[in-house]
C-alpha cells in the first residue's frame, strides 16, 4: 500500500541558511546564496509542497532564517491549514557565511528556552503547534533542570505540543528517558523526532514503542543527509531502477513503510528535489525489497562518526 502525502512534512534545514551538511545541495540552491535568493528558493519549495498536498513544515531556531522565511510565506500566501513545528536549543551563529568556523551552538537551559520561545513566538505566533527540544541526548542537563522541565510542562498545559528530537548512537536511550519525564504526574513530552533511515535503524524499536504508547513519531534525516540520494548503495539503486524512480524516493518509502512512523520529514533544496522525494508516496515496497534494504543497516557508532565527518557545504 502506498503512503498518503499527509504523512510527509517539509523541513527547511537546507534552505534557511547558506551552509549545511547535506550532500547534493550544489546545483540545487541559487548560485548566489544571499538572503533574498535563499528566501525566494524557500518560497518556491514551499509553494510546490503546498500544491502537492504537504501541510506540515518543520523549522528550528538554528536553521538560519527558516522561521523568518516561513512566517513571510504564510503571511503572503494566507494558508491557514499549514501545521508548523519548530525547535529550540541550538542558536545559529554562522553569520550567513559559508566559511564560518562554527555554524550553531547548543545549550539546553531554561534561559535558552525562554529566549528562543520568545523569538519563535515573535515570528510565528500561534501557528506553532509543536515545539521541540533540539537534539536531546540521554546525558542532557535538561533532565535535572527543574525550572526548565516545569517551563516545558507549562507550555504543554497552554496548548502547544512539546516534543524533542534526537541524534547520535544512543537515540533509543534518550527516547526512553525523555518519555518517562513527568511533572505532577503528567508526561512532559508527547512527540519525538528521530533519525531513522535504511542505514541507521537503531532507534526503530524505541520509536515503535513510543507510537504504541500514543506518542507522535516524526522521522528526520530520511536520506541520511543526502547519502541515500547521492551515494546510494547498489540495492537502493536497483530497486529505484525497477520502479522508474530515484534512490531518494526508495529511501523515503522505506521510512513510510514503518507503521510507527507518523511523519517523514523531507529536506529538499529545490523544487526538483522535492518532486523526486515525493515519488515515495507512489511506491509500495515488496517484502523482499524491504528485506534487502534491511541488510544495509550500519553500526550506529560508525554511522554517526561518518555523519560528524561531513563538511558544512
What is the structure about, briefly put?
This protein is of the alpha/beta class and 313 residues long. It is 40% helix and 17% strand. α3 (110-124) packs parallel to α4 (146-157) and α5 runs parallel beside α6.
Task: Tell me what the structure shows.
The structure is a single chain. The chain has 313 residues and is α/β, with parallel strands linked by helices. It is 40% helix and 17% strand. The chain contains twelve helices and twelve strands. The protein has helices spanning 35-52, 66-77, 110-124, 146-157, 171-179, 204-212, 227-230, 234-243, 247-256, 271-278, 287-294, 300-308, and strands at residues 8-11, 56-58, 83-88, 90-92, 104-106, 128-136, 161-166, 182-183, 186-187, 191-195, 216-220, 263-266. Strands 1-2-3-6-7-10-11-12 form an eight-stranded parallel barrel, surrounded by six helices. Helix 1 packs across helix 2 (66-77), helix 5 packs parallel to helix 6 (204-212) and helix 8 crosses helix 9.
Find the count of extended strands (DSSP E, 2+ residues): 12
**Global morphology:** globular
Helix and strand content put the structural class at alpha/beta
Average of pLDDT: 97
DSSP helical segment count: 12
Instruction: State the distance separating the first and last CA atoms.
Output: 37 Å
Evaluate the radius of gyration. 18 Å
Write the layout of secondary structure elements.
Blueprint: E1 8-11, H1 35-52, E2 56-58, H2 66-77, E3 83-88, E4 90-92, E5 104-106, H3 110-124, E6 128-136, H4 146-157, E7 161-166, H5 171-179, E8 182-183, E9 186-187, E10 191-195, H6 204-212, E11 216-220, H7 227-230, H8 234-243, H9 247-256, E12 263-266, H10 271-278, H11 287-294, H12 300-308
Parallel strand pairs: 1-2, 1-12, 2-3, 3-6, 6-7, 7-10, 10-11, 11-12
Antiparallel strand pairs: 4-5, 8-9
Helix pairs in contact: 1-2, 1-10, 3-4, 5-6, 8-9
